[in-house]
Structure formats: structure tokens, C-alpha cells
Amino acid sequence: MTTAKLDVIGIGNAIVDVISQSDNAFLAAQAMDKGAMMLIDEPRAEAIYGAMGPGIEASGGSAGNTVAGVASLGGKAGYIGKVRNDVLGKVYRHDITAAGVAFPTPAAETGPATARCLILVTPDAQRTMNTFLGACVGLGPHDVDADFIASAQVTYMEGYLYDPPLAQEAFRKAAEIAHAAGRKVALSLSDSFCVHRHRQAFLDFIEGHVDVLFANEAELTALFETEDFDKAAAAIRRLTELAAVTRGAEGSVVITRDQIIEVPAAAVARVVDTTGAGDLYAAGFLYGLTRNLPLAECGRIGSIAAAEIISHYGARPETPLAALIQA
After folding, report:
1. CATH code at 209?
2. Are strands 77-80 and 101-102 parallel, antiparallel or unpaired?
3. φ, ψ for residue 275 (rounded to 5)?
4. pLDDT on residue 93
5. Mode of pairing for the β-strands spanning 6-11 and 37-39
6. What is the pLDDT of residue 1?
7. Which of helix, strand or coil describes residue 287?
8. How many whole angstroms separate alpha carbon 78 and alpha carbon 183?
9. Residue spans of beta strands (DSSP E) within the chain
10. What is the mean pLDDT of residues 38-56?
11. Number of domains in the chain
């Protein structure tokens, strides 16, 4: 097995985030389920964008946030995601490459516009997301470059991308290439809504292809159709060798075949916006894992990265994470 050039390659929805402060009345008026992620079409995206307050625009997408976090920690990261050759597509490519992430996927010349996620943050720091997937749905196995995948220690995939059949093919192709090269495959369940839509497919994919699973408590219990976290934890250790499960203020739990490690949450002065907390936890964890650090330390770095991201608006670090983990 050749030495890996990259630590982590992410495969996900290349989405430009538009983040705006909001209140419960606005969510109710727009018939939004607070704290959830809803898929919307382009007309609905335009309508919400026109009604919401001033926003901060930044390149996002779950796996994109994770690889940007890996780069901020000092790791070497790459990304596979589909944008259109439009203004937002150029914005996305500039932002992610400026963050130090390799992004060789060519832009689509035709078809839907670059994706965007309209994120409404209420005073309690809950985020409600409305996502127009646009060009993202065009990502398929033809976008999975074998040499690129084989160059990374870990290929990390986001559950948000699992809807289109072409994307599922891309996941399987990438996993097969990674394992053939002696590399690891990681998956984030992303959202309970994704789990409910693809529960059996996720279970099959985890059992057949995934070495490292990322989830929050709600996603993991939904995966096994139980409200008992201990039962869900026992079930996941039979499917994959390693799982990292976040539990909000309670921290996280790292689950292996033979042990469960509890990791406390890192202190944060004030929670401003929870957007990207799980993405950055995964970044920190994978950064540690690709350096063969103890699992408890991987979780600690993940907690620090998550704490930084929830202390401000937006899902990309404002403070270089490499400095924080040395503190």
C-alpha cells in the first residue's frame, strides 16, 4: 500500500449556505419544522430567500464543512462535489480551495443551478434548513476519480447525498476503490430525516462498506428503530468497527467492537449557531484518527472543533483549529 497523499477526501453536496437570524414566528409563517432540514425546489428557494432577513453567504455542505475543518486543523483534504458553472459555483470553488482543500471535480456545463441551503437561526441557536439541491443531484460514479480516492487515508461520505440513485452508485464505487487501495471508508448519517428515508439501505451500506460511522444520538436510535440509546449502541458495534456518536451538551461516545469511550463536550462561552457542529466534530475525529491518536483524543479534538463552530454563525472555522487543539 502506497503512502497516502491526503488524510481525508469528502464526497457530498456542494452547497452555498445562506445563514440568517430569524424567530419562531417567521418559521411558523413559512410552515417550517423548527430544527429540521427540508428539501425544496428552485421556486420555493427563491420565495424563502426573498422573505428572509439579511444573510451571510458561505460555501457549505456537510462533507465540505468537514474537509475544510480537517484543513484548518493542519490536515490534507480533498473534496468531490458537483457545482454548476455559474456565479455560486465559482464562489463555492474559490471558498473551498482557499480553505486549502483540493477540489478537482469539474463543474456542470448544463442543468440545474448550484445548490444553496437557506439556514434560519433562532435565538435558541437552533437552525432550520431549507435546501435546494440543484446541481448536486448530478453527481455520479463518473465523478469518482480512482486515483484521487486511493490517495486518501479516509473517504468520508455524507448521508445527505444518498437520495439520487447515481449518488448511491458513486458511494459504492468510491468505497470499493478505497478498500481495494487499503484505505478506510467513513459515513455520516447526516440527519434523522435521511435515516427514515434510507434506513435499510444505510444498514446494508454500513455493514458492507463502512469502517467508521458518524451520527448523533437521534440518528443512531432512528437507524435501529429504538428510543434506547444503549440498545442502538450495542447494535451498531455489530455492524462496523468504529462509531462516533455525538450527544449535544453531554459530549460524545466512541463505540468499538469491545469498548465504549465517553468524551465530554468542550466548553463554549455561548452557543450562537449549531450549524455544522457534527461536521466539525467529524473533522476533528478524522484528523486524530489519520494520525493514529488514541480514540479518546480523537473525540477530544472533535469536541474542540465542534465548540469553535457553535460559538459563531456559519459552518466554517473562524479561528484556525490547529491553534485551538494545542491550547
Report:
1. 3.40.1190.20
2. parallel
3. -55, 125
4. 95
5. unpaired
6. 62
7. helix
8. 15
9. 6-11, 15-21, 37-39, 56-60, 77-80, 101-102, 115-121, 127-132, 152-158, 184-188, 212-216, 242-246, 252-256, 260-263
10. 90
11. 1
* Number of Cβ atoms within 10 Å of the Cβ of 176: 16
Q: What CA–CA distances, in Å, run from 121 to 6, 26, 181, 207? A: 34, 11, 42, 36
Residue 131 domain flag:
no
- State whether residue 98 is helix, strand or coil: helix
* Phi (first) and psi of residue 94, to 5 degrees: -60, -45
Tens of pLDDT, residues 108-151:
999 999 999 999 999 998 889 999 999 998 999 999 999 999 99
Report whether pLDDT(3) > 90.
no
Collapsed DSSP state (helix, strand, coil) of residue 33: coil
Confidence bin at 221 (pLDDT 50/70/90): very high
Domain enclosing residue 196, as ranges? 6-13+62-111+137-326
The answer to whether position 53 is within a domain reads no
**252 close to 299: Cβ distance less than 8 angstroms:** yes
The reported pLDDT for the residue numbered 327 is 60
Determine, yes or no, domain membership for 47.
no
Q: Is the pLDDT of residue 2 over 80?
A: no
130 within some domain: no
DSSP-derived pairing of the beta strands 260-263 and 252-256: antiparallel
CB 79 within 8 A of CB 92: no
Which of 61, 91, 83, 64 has its CA nearest to residue 10?
Answer: 64
Grid cell at residue 250: 453531554
Q: Which residues fall within 8 angstroms of residue 46, CB to CB, at 6 or more apart?
A: none
Question: What is the DSSP code string of 53-81?
Answer: ---EEEEE-HHHHHHHHHHHTT--EEEE-
Mean pLDDT of 56-71: 92
Q: What are phi and psi of 126, to 5 degrees?
A: -75, 145
Q: Take residue 23 and report the three cell numbers written for it.
A: 424567530
Torsion of CA 116, 18, 194, 32, to 10 degrees: -110
